[in-house]
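Run log // design_07
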């Protein structure tokens, strides 16, 4: 390892050495300085962690999670060595084995699957930040059954944005904090992207700009907002479309922006009896047609000098007609259905508030436009002297995504941004490199199942239409175990991780031989119906064999899921590993700069653990996967660090952008550099390449951006990105459901596709509420993630536990008064699926129909090396136990997954409940599971830190 002066501090009073790497205490991926000091035995120990002020993401800011990374690294819950199960599943009884035995055993389980039926391996990862590797590995294995956690986290966010305009909130874009005049934030918890958001909000506050928080709960960002909209859960889309209604009525939209950058002028065929009704009118070359304002005739939208019209009607042959999609859009949203007074009862937002916010948006966008004196040239060759922006910015996350109507809600917010012309304009939402990437620049999903043969492409991608569904020859049966890209969830860009275990247990559409999981706590907080999932993992068939025969699991810590594994491959902590935070995967760029980063072993493991990515490459070589094996059968990559530096996804393009080329002189494109990781280490663990000034805005239509993106290896050629307000693939699915096109869905699915696949952003009530008697379950129940925690990783951390040691159910005052509850009481929270017992805390800063709690605080006894009476196990709880992975029966014998019907996003936040006061004699949360055996030693221990430095 290099020991350059940038990492060495000569002052013994502070630390012996400072090593710079990337945090992993949430998905923010901030730069950190890890201070090391040798103990009395001469071994380096982590003394403290601070933010790296030179890092482009956090600029030195570090949250409680990041600072507490010390206790994540020294956690008593760390796994120590490979283990194989010796008791029954779920008991937590294991024996330690060597790595050779563990890898030989895993290979013996995986090899026959690949040789006979590769789809019988289901490989799913949790909060894995190396999905470009794990997905590539699964593709080379040949199984279609791969996905990461996005399907139960935020696929609606990603898919809704990319299908609409080629980007999305959070990792793919950010508000223009320094220029925005008005900012709206929807459903964002404080754990995701927290440091950049805090920095951004502070800029808005310093400039005196208004922040509007839209969230049923007023905590965190919403607590510091200038205005809080206490929305009823699942109605954000209706609220946004009501704002759209007001803007259209007032004519406060950016017509020029719509004509230049969107498909608003594209002609839609209006012939209700025809097979192409609702599709775009195209010429023989496939170009969408528009009405030319100069001639009144049809022309290709991309014809030189054409001036498209947003209104009008064109007569076609045989009595057919076509109208611009904007005409359909205006007709839809000008309907009184969306008038503020007509949606107020559903949304919980007074009509006067909706109207005022719409007026404020219009005022900020059109009366306070931002002008930057920067010439630029668009993709049509037209030169612009200035960059003119509509300074209204939006940000949203899981709170709107995790509903069964989340995809359409995400699209509704993007529709609003586009109508006012604020996407990638000064003061609005800005793309982060390598985005924008419209669907045309994204891969399509790939299926298949040929023994000993890699898939022809990645498992995950973006559906163009029904012809791409991953179905068996009968046109109905899904190819994938999670039913992604089938009629159940046709546009499921991230898969349905929450359905894998349930479907495999039901052998619907088939059973599997091996379930291989990484960092996915599916027996506890990462699944719906946690109690049921535990049974599914342990149930046996009529022959006494486990229904899910073999389960390989990798994690760094003794989580609840570890107890259900047959084979455990222990991972390192994030301070002991190599990682590539890659533009091929989940980028960390900012709008002004293309950035990526690494992690590297700033401290060596003191246990028999290995980084999972290196283990995966080892397994790939043992299995003879061609991409991981040389011609003589030897491994192609020594470990993950070797892969990071030498793997090429295509010639000249690899996991890292910086210091490419044999001498490290190239950026973006270039040959592998054997010293690339060392170059990153010397630079503080990251690379940063600034976007040229003329490419900073309007990237979707900016020739300078396109040329630079090609130069950097982000794309191979210029990519057209016309914003899709009217989403034609959705209409294609409707045509299939109408019986006018092939393939056709089964009868059970027709009406759902007709109802939900509107090509214009739409709103429909969340499914759970529509499936039950609301008089029995009148309230909403939600989880939010606290700023000090990131899922279950944080809530086993000795320092962070002092901030949140247990979680009450926060219940609105009016409900408390009705039920007779006060602070400290206990209550039963009851859904159609089950009942939990929880401690209560009164709260008035919350939507009056909504109760909520912190997520992933509750723990199972015996897990995470917590003490037997830990507050997380006795007063902590999960809502997961009362959320079913399936919707209530409809009486037709078919059970739908509790998901968005378009993308398969888990609908965590559709939960409806009632509340009853519970007796106080037993102040322990319910349900309580039997304690697991703890494979890492006695949980009854005192965690002390730094004692050796107190001399």
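design_07 sequence
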């Amino acid at each position: 390892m290099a020991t350059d002066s940038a990492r060495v501090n000569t002052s013994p009073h502070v630390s012996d050495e400072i090593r710079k790497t990337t945090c992993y205490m949430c998905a923010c991926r901030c730069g950190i300085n890890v201070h090391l000091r040798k103990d009395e035995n001469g071994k380096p120990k982590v003394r403290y962690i601070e933010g790296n002020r030179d890092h482009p993401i956090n600029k030195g800011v570090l949250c409680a999670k990041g600072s507490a990374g010390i206790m994540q690294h020294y956690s008593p819950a760390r796994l120590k060595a490979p283990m194989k199960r010796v008791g029954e599943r779920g008991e937590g009884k294991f024996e330690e084995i060597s790595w050779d035995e563990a890898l030989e055993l895993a290979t013996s389980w995986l090899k026959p699957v690949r040789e006979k039926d590769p789809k019988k391996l289901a490989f799913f990862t949790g909060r894995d930040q190396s999905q470009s590797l794990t997905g590539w590995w699964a593709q080379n294995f040949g199984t279609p059954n791969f996905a990461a956690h996005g399907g139960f986290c935020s696929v609606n966010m990603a898919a809704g944005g990319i299908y609409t305009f080629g980007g999305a909130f959070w990792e793919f874009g950010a508000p223009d904090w320094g220029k925005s005049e008005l900012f709206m934030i929807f459903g964002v918890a404080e754990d995701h992207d927290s440091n950049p958001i805090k920095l951004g909000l502070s800029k808005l506050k310093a400039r005196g700009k208004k922040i509007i928080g839209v969230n049923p709960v007023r905590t965190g960002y919403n607590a510091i907002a200038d205005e809080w909209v206490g929305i009823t859960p699942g109605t954000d889309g209706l609220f946004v479309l009501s704002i759209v209604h007001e803007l259209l009525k007032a004519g406060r939209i950016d017509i020029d922006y719509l004509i230049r950058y969107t498909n608003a002028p594209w002609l839609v065929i209006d012939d209700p009896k025809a097979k192409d009704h609702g599709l775009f009118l195209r010429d023989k070359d496939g170009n969408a047609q528009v009405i030319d304002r100069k001639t009144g005739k049809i022309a290709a939208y991309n014809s030189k000098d054409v001036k498209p019209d947003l209104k009008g009607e064109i007569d076609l042959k045989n009595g057919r007609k076509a109208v611009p999609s904007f005409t359909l859009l205006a007709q839809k949203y000008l309907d009184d259905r969306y008038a503020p007074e007509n949606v107020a009862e559903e949304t919980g937002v007074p009509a006067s508030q909706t109207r005022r916010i719409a007026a404020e948006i219009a005022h900020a966008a059109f009366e306070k436009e931002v002008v930057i004196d920067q010439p630029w040239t668009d993709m049509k060759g037209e030169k612009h002297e200035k960059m003119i922006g509509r300074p209204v910015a939006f940000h949203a996350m899981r709170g709107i995504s995790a509903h069964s109507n989340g995809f359409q809600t995400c699209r509704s917010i993007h529709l609003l941004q586009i109508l006012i012309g604020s996407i990638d304009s000064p003061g609005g939402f800005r793309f982060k490199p390598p985005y924008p990437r419209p669907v045309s620049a994204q891969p399509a999903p790939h299926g298949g199942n040929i023994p000993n043969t890699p898939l022809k492409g990645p498992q995950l991608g973006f559906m163009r239409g029904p012809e791409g569904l991953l179905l068996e020859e009968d046109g109905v049966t899904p190819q994938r175990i999670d039913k992604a890209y089938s009629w159940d969830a046709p546009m499921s860009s991230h898969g349905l991780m929450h359905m894998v275990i349930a479907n495999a247990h039901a052998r619907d559409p088939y059973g599997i031989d091996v379930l291989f999981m990484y960092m996915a706590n599916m027996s506890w907080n990462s699944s719906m119906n946690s109690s049921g999932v535990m049974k599914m993992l342990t149930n046996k068939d009529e022959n006494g064999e486990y229904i899910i025969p073999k389960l390989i699991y990798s994690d760094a810590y003794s989580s609840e899921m570890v107890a259900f594994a047959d084979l455990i491959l222990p991972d390192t902590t994030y301070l002991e590993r190599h990682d590539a935070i890659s533009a091929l995967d989940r980028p960390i760029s900012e709008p002004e700069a293309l950035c990526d980063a690494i992690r590297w072993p700033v401290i060596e493991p003191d246990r028999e653990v290995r980084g999972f990515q290196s283990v995966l490459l080892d397994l790939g070589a043992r299995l003879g996967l061609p991409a991981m094996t040389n011609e003589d059968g030897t491994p192609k990559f020594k470990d993950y660090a070797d892969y990071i530096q030498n793997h090429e996804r295509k010639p000249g393009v690899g996991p890292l952008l910086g210091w490419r080329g044999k001498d490290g002189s190239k950026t973006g494109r270039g040959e592998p550099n054997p010293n690339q990781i060392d170059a990153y280490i010397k630079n503080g663990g990251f690379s940063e390449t600034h976007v040229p000034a003329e490419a900073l805005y309007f990237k979707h239509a900016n020739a300078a951006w396109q040329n630079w993106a090609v130069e950097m290896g982000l794309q191979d050629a210029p990519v057209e990105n016309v914003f899709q307000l009217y989403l034609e693939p959705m209409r294609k699915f409707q045509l299939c459901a109408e019986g006018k096109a092939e393939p056709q869905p089964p009868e059970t699915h027709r009406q759902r596709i007709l109802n939900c696949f509107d090509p214009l952003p739409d709103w429909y009530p969340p499914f759970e509420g529509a499936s039950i008697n609301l008089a029995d379950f009148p309230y909403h129940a939600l989880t939010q993630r606290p700023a000090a925690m990131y899922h279950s990783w944080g809530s086993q951390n000795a320092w962070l536990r002092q901030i949140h040691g247990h979680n009450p159910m926060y219940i609105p005052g009016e409900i408390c008064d009705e039920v007779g509850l006060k602070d400290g009481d206990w209550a039963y929270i009851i859904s159609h699926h089950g009942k939990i017992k929880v401690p209560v805390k009164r709260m008035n800063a919350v939507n009056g129909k909504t109760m909520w709690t912190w997520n992933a605080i509750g723990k199972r006894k015996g897990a995470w090396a917590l003490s037997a009476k830990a507050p997380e196990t006795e007063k902590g709880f999960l809502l997961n136990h009362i959320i079913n992975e399936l919707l209530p029966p409809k009486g037709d014998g078919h059970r739908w997954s509790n998901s968005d019907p378009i993308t398969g996003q888990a609908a965590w936040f559709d939960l409806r409940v009632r509340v009853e006061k519970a007796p106080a004699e037993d102040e322990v949360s319910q349900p309580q599971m039997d304690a697991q055996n703890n494979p890492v030693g006695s949980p009854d221990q005192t965690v002390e830190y730094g004692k050796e430095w107190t001399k």
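The domain at 1-62 is CATH 2.20.25 (N-terminal domain of TfIIb).
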